[in-house]
Amino acid sequence: MGEMQFGPRAVVVAASLCLGGCAALDAAAVAEAHRLEEVQFYVDVGSGGRLDVERLLLVPAALDPELSDALGYGRRKGEFAPLLAALNADLEARSCCRFLPDPSLPIGAPHVYVGTAVGAFAPPEGEQQVLPHEQFPPMVLHLRRPSAAWQQAMAEILARAGASHAVVVSLGVSQYPKGREGVFGKKVVLGTGHDEPIRFLTAEDKLLEVLQLTGVLVDAQGRVVRAGAEGILARDTPFAAQVFDIEKVLDDRTLQQVLTVERRADLAGNPLKWEVALGNLLAGLRGDPEGRLVP
């Protein structure tokens, strides 16, 4: 799947300077937002992620810290625990990279949002990527850079491990728009080589709830050089509920099915969707198309 870069369209947002001459830049939130095309799920940052990343360190995947603010998911963190455990077991078993079970990193990790530019979960900067003539908001990638303390700690961990880069993965929920499939059909593009049909009787402007993996590739200085996401599955609101503007969230039963039932029937062996998403995310962050599970 092609990955087009739109550096000139990126909007860089710097937080207000510390009052009183404060030099603690880790207290200043620095972020950037990128407009994404339909098939684009990765963005190079700074010098870019297409570097020598053979000595790669993997840290445990974590739950998106902003999940608690998303439509009541904060009260349901325990429901994500089995999937999070499966993700980390997969990361630990990978022979390509070294897994560090307890990196002891401080707060202030980089945060990635991939989803609709305007929605319940979207950052305020997303609205700046909507063009005046557009009927529906585009997809965006919003990156909040790590704090200075987190960046320094990561650099020290990489130096001790003799690694050149690290990958940080998060499990979370976002909202994606619907796209067209032919004249009458609808679909949702979830990630690398992954799109799924949407039933016809559904409101075109209603967003889909998406379970996704986001991640960043950081260099030896702890700086983010590439960011991206892969969607695992999407859930639509029943049409009758859409009439009354009711949102359907990912329920406990759906999260349980992700571990055993939700599979990619379009791929050989019918692999689990989360396994394909994780493999593609690691390869996508490394800029390694040969490592992906789909073309």
Q: Uncertain spans, ≥5 residues at pLDDT below 50?
A: 1-29, 238-247
Rg computed from alpha carbons, rounded to a whole number of angstroms: 19 Å
Strand share of the residues?
Answer: 25-35%
Number of strands: 14
Structural class, judged by helices and strands?
alpha+beta
Total of helices: 5
Molecular structure report:
The chain is of the alpha+beta class and 295 residues long. Strand 11 and strand 12 (194-198) form a beta hairpin. It has one domain. Helix 1 packs parallel to helix 4. It has five helices and 14 strands. The model is unreliable at 1-29 and 238-247 (pLDDT under 50). The strands form three sheets. Strands 3, 4, 5, 6, 9, 13 and 14 form a seven-stranded mixed sheet that branches. A four-stranded antiparallel sheet has the order 1-2-8-7, with no helix packed on it. It has helices spanning 77-93, 148-161, 239-243, 252-260, 273-286, and strands at 11-14, 30-36, 42-44, 56-58, 62-63, 98-99, 111-116, 139-144, 165-176, 179-181, 185-191, 194-198, 208-218, 224-235. The chain is globular.
